[in-house]
Amino acid sequence: METVTAKPTQEAHYSFFKGVERNFDKAAKFTRFESGILEQIKACNSVYSMKFPVRIGDKIEVIEAFRVQHSHHKLPCKGGIRYSMDVNQDEVMALASLMTYKCAIVNVPFGGAKGGIKINPKKYTAFELEKITRRYASELVKKNFIGPGMDVPAPDYGTGAREMSWIVDTYASLKPGEVDALACVTGKPVSQGGVRGRTEATGLGVYYGIRELCNVAEDMKKVGLSTGIEGKKVIVQGLGNVGYHAAKFFFDNGAIIVGLAEYEGGIYDEKGLDIYKVVEHRKATGSIHNYPGATNIKNSAETMEQPCDILIPAALENVINGSNASRIQAKIIGEAANGPLTPDADDILNKKGVIVVPDMYLNAGGVTVSYFEWLKNLSHVRFGRMDKRFRENQYGNILHALENLTGKKASDIERNQLSHGPDEVDLVYSGLEDTMIGSYHEIREAWLSLNGAADMRTAAFTVAINKVGVSYEELGIFP
Question: Tens digit of pLDDT for each residue in 397-430?
């Protein structure tokens, strides 16, 4: 089996937040707002940098953490919490600002926020992680940086439902009697107020967004591809929650997964990879390498440079930059991760005619379904509880009437399909699909209105700036 190697490439001293501001400034010139409002939209409103002690084993360890609230034009603020040694204030500020624009694009009424704890979660036991998480939550409560109407965190890189359950329990214990305490975070286990469909939401949103792009004949003509997802060759970088589910939905709907990359390296097979079998292989061997029939790629980054129609970077930021962008062969890049392309990479790829579907739209499935969870927690009613049986009875009566009129009986399978009332997950999927389709066409309309003067990312920023700017004007806060 052939092994391909390459030297890793990286841009030095790159500021993620400055990159976001650079993209903002490119779009701002296409809006009607005066410079003062634009500066207010761009600025981070509140930055909380903290250090707190936690006993780990027989030693006291000082933990560094952050929470940034980028915009208060709508409350609560919304954004995940990541656990990583790469966490720093610049990154958290950038991610918080992207959350503001992301929420605006998909019409979710939140301001942007983000949090992070500078730790390697793999080095701690579950008990130690719980102590760190609960202490972080208590620090947020002290400064009013968490609450159903103020700031609602969620999972991100290195965190999940478990950490959210610790946070909501800590918040509830410090705010006794608060009836909406469950709404202080999203991404919780379903048993603690979470919503069904949240786990796969971001990956599913990535699929819906790319599918909508591929269904527009005019857009496909620009890159020389036929319409539809079926038969498209896809490479996915990152097999975490987002990357796995994106790959799964592409695979299930007829796309050909030709490449997969993880931290240990990548694999490539132009005939296609079975995502389910690759995951089984990795569980059995500890690596995606040596998957039967696939070519091993030693350096993970080079996997993205292999031939494909669609590239989905679904891991960390800055993986496609000025050093490697010219070697990308994909015709469509869907940013499933936050900030996987630097502005220099954008410039190179735009000149090549590549369609880059921006992160602030494409990975908004997570915050969209988080919004549904927040609404569920505030209403204290599971989606579908009020009308599922009513609809099933109604559909059943219609089906019975049709059978009587036609003299034909529906099969058991047809009966189940036609009389099925929506479960919570059905409604979540439907709401997410509607959001991603509607938002894509909002961005596309703005993109077309710029008459080739900008790319899709700039169009998305323009849409976001316009919505946030109008909110600030309507607030009337400028004396």
Answer: 888 888 888 888 888 888 888 878 788 888 999 9
Using the 3D structure, point to which of 151, 166, 192 is the last residue of a domain.
192
Q: Which of 119, 95, 40, 127 is nearest to 478 (CA)?
A: 40
CATH number at residue 83: 3.40.50.10860
- Bridge partners (DSSP) of residue 81 are 115, 155
Measured in residues, the chain has a length of: 479
Distance separating alpha carbons of residues 273 and 277, to the nearest angstrom: 8
pLDDT in tens, 177-217: 999 999 999 999 999 999 998 889 999 999 999 999 999 99
Report the predicted TM-score, pTM, of the whole model to 2 decimal places: 0.87
Q: What is the DSSP string of 46-107?
A: EEEEEEEEEEETTEEEEEEEEEEE---SSSSEEEEEEE-TT--HHHHHHHHHHHHHHHHHTT
Q: Which residue among the candidates 102, 114, 131, 388 is catalytic per the annotation? A: 114
The verdict on 73 and 87 lying in the same domain is: yes
Model confidence pLDDT, tens digit, residues 148-177: 999 999 998 889 999 999 999 999 999 999
Q: Let me know if 114 is a catalytic residue.
A: yes
If asked whether residues 169 and 264 sit together in one domain, one would say no
Q: 238 with 360, same domain? A: yes
The one-letter amino acid at 256: I
Range of the domain at 87: 43-192
